[in-house]
Amino acid sequence: MTLRRPHPAWLVAAVAFIALVGAAGFRATPSVLLQPLHQEFGWSLGTISAAVSVNLLLYGLTAPFAAALMEKFGMRRVVAGALVLVSAGSGFTVFMEASWQLVLCWGVLVGLGTGSMALGFVAIVANRWFVHRRGLVTGVLTAGGAAGQLVFLPLLARLTGAHGWRVAALTVAAAALIVVPLVWWRLRDRPADLGATAYGAGPDDVASLPATPPGSAARNALRTLRHAAGTRPFWLLAGGFAICGATTNGLVGTHFIPAAHDHGMTETTAAGLLALVGLFDIAGTIASGWLTDRVDSRLLLGGYYALRGLSLLVLPSLFAATAHPSMVVFILFYGLDWVATVPPTVALCREYFGASGAVVFGWVFASHQFGAAIAATSAGLVRDRLGAYDWAWYGAGALALLASLLSLMLLAGRRTRDGGPAGPGIGLAFPAAATPAAPAS
């Protein structure tokens, strides 16, 4: 008997998953270090949250250009460089003495690094290496960020409590750097680089993305945005995803631990609860990828956002000094819905924009981080001015219900396409069967 070797696509996906976990360490850092930095330097939560907002904003703005850079220079170079930036940004914080240095390290360096490995990277791996199981692979890779949060949050909380926040920052720096050799050894850009085809590709399938378009990566990313921005689906997806960012990374990811601490809960306990969000998020995101292969993505997004909004509206009444059962139920429910929105959003970008879907998703993801940046700063200001986070949670719940409505509005565009010619601004910006025609010479 001979052992059957796994398809190369699965090995590439595994390395991508590990790289995402390595970079995800910083995603857990701000919520753990918010109070220690406030206590040591005396900076207000609004000031520290502003550094987080710069990170989130650059994380989003870098994503579409990173997707274009990956098409131009290859995933391996871009991802390895991104991990080095994350390591440098986290490591240099141990030398800072002023708040602007926090903005430079947390905001600029780590923002650029993590943005270069954002969900556009996930979309490229799934689209290039898989024909079958794309939704499932997207869900698994997206869960890599949650796995990183799960791995690092309790560890960082314990390190901070026992040895101080500088040891925690250096741990994140080392974790990101350790992954670089693995990325350089195994990550490849296209199946053809290994003499293979995409997983599940048949004779009639295109095994890889079209040839890299001429011109600079930045110009191609901006040209893609210009075409996509002329369509109604792009703005509905971007609007919903901006609210997604505001209600996850921006608010819960950054301020859940300080909010729980306000009610007498220890930071270690609160970090454990947030890590549970990551645990359930892994299951929820993988299940969402499975559902995306079988259920209309517009309906999935509408349901996800509605359930998230309702859960946030009841959250202020659940905070207490201990993790009582009602809070644990919220953590379970919210965790399943944390980034379950990603697989259907990636699928819709591919459906509406075809071969340009990965770069378009990079721009949609930029809106996600724009919303997260606004929420991170706004929630910190609400806490500084009102002395509590309650109105931040209520506002986020209302916005999530609005995102549900925006997602369901995509159904109208689908019916128009199925039933006849699409109206202005509705329909495929770049049909899946072809890219925009070049002008005649």
Task: Give a short synopsis of this structure.
This protein is an all-alpha fold. It is 75% helix and 0% strand. The protein has a single domain (8-192, 218-413), classed as MFS general substrate transporter like domains (Growth Hormone, Chain: A, Up-down Bundle).
Mean of all residue-level pLDDT scores: 81
What is the makeup of the main sheet?
Answer: none
- CATH architecture annotation: Up-down Bundle
The tally of helices reads: 17
Just give the CATH class.
Answer: Mainly Alpha
> Superfamily at the CATH H level?
MFS general substrate transporter like domains
Overall helicity: over 70%
Structural summary, described in words:
It is a single chain. With 441 residues, the chain is mainly alpha-helical. It has a single domain, classed as Up-down Bundle (Growth Hormone, Chain: A), CATH 1.20.1250.20. It is built from 17 helices and no strands. It has helices spanning 8-23, 25-41, 45-73, 75-91, 99-115, 119-129, 134-163, 165-178, 180-186, 217-228, 232-262, 267-292, 297-314, 325-337, 342-353, 357-386, 390-419. α3 packs antiparallel against α16 (357-386). The radius of gyration is 21 Å and the shape is globular.
